[in-house]
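User: Could you go from structure to sequence for me? I need the amino acid at each position, not a summary. Structure tokens:
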């Protein structure tokens, strides 16, 4: 039998500044958003153009609020509503963790809808560009989960070379499912979306890339849930599925529907290319 790996004792705090501290989890959010916006600046200019680089920069505030508010509210509503109804002040204790990807996704969709409506952009064309960058943050977030020693996997065979014993996971070897998710929901999904985004014929079909992201994430997350230990306060649902898998069902259906919709509608002409680029503080351009 192969020796089982012990979880490295990472400090969840990256650096201290007096009474303040920067945690790896917070860094993953910050870095994911910055890298995502940097990529978005390039993607929106690809023909057919979806926005300007200034508008991509202005979207930073909107997407940050969407991720944080949606992720927190999603966790409260999807995972522990009864607890937070009896402990309302705990809703503000974000330093104790508790963020939901599905809630964050809803928050980002709401932010995109408001942003594109406010500034006269094509919602689906802009969403296509945004979703290509989303797996960057997902992958970094799962690495941060691993560093924190949280959301570990189910019991693994003792002869699995990378089986690991986590500090709060008992004495049994477990799957490092956080890394599985980082590789599938992050690296693999990003690679697929980035390659697809290089094709103008796909970019010209608003909604296709967004649908590919939704369906791809649903498949990756559902697969990884077979190796991830369910939350103790939820356990398994009817039929042995998990809450994560249940939430992925409508996500997958919406993704397939979006791709079909995109293929059946005329190509997108894009935003006007001539003239100075406008920021989100400028009057909205005409829709393409």
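Assistant: Here is the amino acid at each position, in order:
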């Amino acid at each position: 039998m192969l020796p089982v790996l012990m979880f490295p004792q990472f400090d969840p705090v990256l650096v201290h500044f007096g009474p303040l501290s920067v945690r790896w989890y917070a860094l993953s959010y910050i870095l994911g958003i910055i890298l995502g916006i940097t990529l978005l600046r390039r993607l929106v200019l690809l023909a057919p153009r979806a926005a300007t680089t200034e508008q991509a920069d202005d979207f930073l505030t909107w997407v940050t609020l969407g991720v944080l508010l949606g992720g927190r509210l999603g966790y409260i509503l999807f995972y522990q509503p009864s607890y937070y109804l009896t402990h309302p002040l705990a809703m503000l204790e974000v330093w104790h963790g508790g963020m939901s990807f599905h809630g964050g996704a809803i928050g980002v969709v709401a932010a995109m809808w408001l942003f594109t409506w406010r500034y006269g952009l094509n919602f689906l064309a802009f969403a296509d560009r945004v979703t290509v960058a989303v797996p960057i943050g997902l992958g970094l977030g799962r690495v941060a989960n691993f560093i924190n020693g949280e959301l570990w996997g189910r019991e693994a065979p003792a002869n699995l070379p990378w089986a690991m014993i986590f500090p709060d996971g008992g004495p049994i070897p477990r799957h490092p499912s956080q890394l599985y998710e980082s590789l599938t929901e992050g690296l693999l999904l990003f690679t697929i979306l980035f390659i697809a985004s290089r094709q103008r014929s796909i970019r010209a079909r608003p909604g296709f890339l967004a649908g590919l992201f939704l369906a791809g994430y649903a498949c990756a997350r559902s697969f990884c849930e077979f190796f991830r230990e369910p939350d103790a306060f939820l356990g398994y649902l009817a039929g042995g599925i998990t809450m994560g898998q249940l939430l992925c069902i409508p996500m997958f259906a919406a993704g397939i529907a979006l791709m079909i919709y995109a293929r059946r509608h005329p190509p997108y002409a894009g935003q006007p290319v001539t003239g100075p680029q406008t920021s989100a503080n400028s009057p909205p351009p005409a829709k393409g």
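One structural detail worth keeping in mind: DSSP finds nine helices and four strands in the chain.
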